[in-house]
Specification:
Helix content of chain B: under 10%
Radius of gyration of chain B: 13 Å
Structural class of chain A: mainly beta
Order of helices and strands of chain A: EEEEEEEEEEE
Radius of gyration of chain A: 13 Å
Distance between the termini of chain B: 36 Å
Largest sheet of chain B: 6 strands, mixed
Largest interface: A-B, 25 and 23 residues
Number of strands of chain A: 11
Helix content of chain A: under 10%
Structural class of chain B: mainly beta
Distance between the termini of chain A: 37 Å
Oligomer: heterodimer
Number of helices of chain A: 0
Chain lengths: ~110, ~110
């Protein structure tokens, strides 16, 4: 079974703090994704990585950066957390096969910024 | 207009009812993915399909590529089916990125 794990289920941070969210997958997938999920807005893509050290901006990259130094690990960084970044953050991964490219999701991290 | 539309947005059913959730999309796709998310939980994969029909237990998913429409059916619904059901499509435009529907919130009453 594909397993995608995230470093924390719940996280509380203060405004201005630097926040790291980590995601690890164990299926040797090329692609990894970070999403945020907000009521009424659904899932929105923040960043996408298609290989080690390669990244692409998603729909809402402002205020976020990412790092992928190893194939299995994809980190989301909030350089200076703000209250409007309070949200559920979900990581996903998929293989590099273009067709039928199923994404597998982690359990999510609910981040609260005070 | 969203490229992926789900209906209904909210659905309340009595235990045992047959439930249908619909997903319509306006782009060419290589596959469609049905996902389930329980309250406060992560996202679980139900089906990924590119044609025809798939069945797993009480869940059935169908897709009509020509009509750009998919349905998710739940037979003999149970309170544990209460969740948000999300439709996501993988466009044929050479991308790995999903386009998501906004989800259908299902509540099944005992």
């Amino acid at each position: 079974d594909v397993k995608v794990t995230q470093s924390s289920r719940y996280l509380v941070k203060r405004t201005g703090e630097k926040v790291f969210l980590e995601c690890v997958q164990d299926m040797d997938h090329e692609n990894m994704f970070w999403y945020r999920q907000d009521p009424g807005l659904g899932l929105r893509l923040i960043y996408f990585s298609y290989d080690v050290k390669m990244k692409e901006k998603g729909d809402i990259p402002e205020g976020y950066s990412v790092s992928r130094e190893k194939k299995e690990r994809f980190s989301l960084i909030l350089e200076s957390a703000s209250t409007n970044q309070t949200s559920m953050y979900l990581c996903a991964s998929s293989s590099g096969q273009l067709s039928y490219n199923e994404q597998f999701f982690g359990p999510g991290t609910r981040l609260t910024v005070l | 207009k969203n490229e992926v539309e789900q209906s209904p947005q909210n659905l309340t059913a009595q235990e045992g009812e047959f439930i249908t959730i619909n997903c319509s999309y306006s782009v060419g796709i290589s596959a469609l993915h049905w996902l389930q998310q329980h309250p406060g939980g992560g996202i679980v994969s139900l089906f990924m399909l590119s044609s025809g029909k798939k069945k797993h237990g009480r869940l059935i998913a169908t897709i009509n590529i020509q009509e750009k429409h998919s349905s998710l059916h739940i037979t003999a619904s149970h309170p544990r089916d209460s969740a948000v059901y999300i439709c996501a499509v993988l466009p044929t435009s050479g991308t790995y990125k999903y386009i998501f529907g906004t989800g259908t919130r299902l509540k099944v009453l005992a």
